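Recall that a protein's primary structure is simply its ordered list of amino acids. Everything else, from secondary elements to tertiary packing, is in principle encoded there. The following example makes that idea concrete.
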Amino acid sequence: MAPLPEQTLTDDLMFDILVAEIAGQRGEMEVSVPHYLQAAENARDPRVAERAVQIASYAKQYDIAERAARRWVELAPDDLEAHKALTVLALHLGDTEEAISQLDYLISTSSDPEEGYRLATALLSRDANKDAALKAMQKLVAHHPENPQAWIALSRMAVNVGSLEVGLDAVNKALDLSPQLPAAVILKAQILVRLERKAEATQVLEAAVSKHPDNSMLHFAYGRMLLDSDDLAGAKKQFGKVVELEPDNAEGLYSLALLELETKQYKAGEKHLLQLLQLQPDEQNAYYYLGYSALEQGDDATALQWYSKIEGGDYWSQSQLRIAEILLRQGKVDAMQRHMRLLRQKNPEQSETFFLIEGQVYTDAGMHEAAFNIYGTALQASPDNEELLYARALAAEKLGKLDIAESDMRRILKNDPDNTRTLNALGYTLADRTNRYEEALVYIEKAYEQEPNDPAIIDSLGWVHFRLGNLDEARSLLQRAWDMTGNSEIGAHLGEVMWAQGDREDARRVWEVSLEAEPDNPMLLKVLERYHP
């Protein structure tokens, strides 16, 4: 960085700076801005011009900010921040030629052309007028038509503003100039996916991997594509190749490990997660999945050790749930309760979340009374908390405390009349546990209007029609919900309707499929016990 010039603080310069600062602190920007501009134009110190840009921009006086930015560039021609500021302000004011001139400078001074164009894309993307930004990038690329990085930058900008066909055309021009440029190949595949041409995108990556078998970036992109297509074996092969080529590739190790755990190759998954931890010792997600792997193998003690290491990240709350479940499964009820109490004490702002976690643990263990009580305790401090009210309502329903269940759900609906989840739950409870079927239908239909493709709501609607004696309507709805999910409880309902219609063979078939999927489902077992199919 060039040394700052010597600056004599004349009386006029000092006056302008002091007035500008004092006025700015008082919020009198109409006084502050012109005085700082005057100071910038009189000073030889670029810091004064930089401050003038900041003040004028804050005051939204962008024309003055641009004048100050030009002065900043004049005083510090090698300062990239000055050129960036002038670029953004010129774009904002529609001064495209100035913006392109500054971008040309930033690209020419970058040691890495790709990085230079990434910077240009980032600066242009900050402009609120996306169409103008895209046109500016097109003009910039016209200055460098033989540079594939320029066309990639244009393609990315076009994608950012939603002009996918323009983006595809630009990335194809980049590939014409450099046919196997990995970044261009991957970008083309991504655009094709967004254009709903996924098969073509897969072919593009498959061909690129075949031509460049040693390029880990292409293997990773191809693996992601296959994963999105539910080709787990193919994705795992590609991620394995990434790790083979780059044993220290963190993304490759993580992706491969998760697929190995998904396909029950626990030892292999653990090995790659441990390798990831050698690279990134505080990787919280790795701790979580090591805990998951141990849990899946029935090793509660090891799972507990891994979950206890997690201090944050995406799976922190889920880990606390798992810790509580393990302690409860080990019969350490007091230890589990102490653990949850300590979490609430250490994280009071998340106390409601921990009450919900503790209640969920009780529910999963069939301890509905304990769940009901813990939600009640939490509601004393947060009587209108929607999640707590909803959770207690479900626990109350399990215990046959229908008056409390209904009261809690109505309290939610009083504050949020269109709450789809609660409308459906209240309607289903009334349909299943009372004879207030017409009232139940009103709630469920309102939920259905909001979420017509939600299988749980379709199931509720089918069930209330069954209760009302509308068997054909009930069967049609329940068949639709079951086809969408294969859910065993929906299957239990569908079988009941079929049985009521005298179609006992179909009922038995649905129940058999449901039982095979969930042999311990309590609701399904009750239905089978009632009908003895």
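The two ends are 85 Å apart (CA to CA). Residues 456 and 481 are 7 Å apart (CA to CA).
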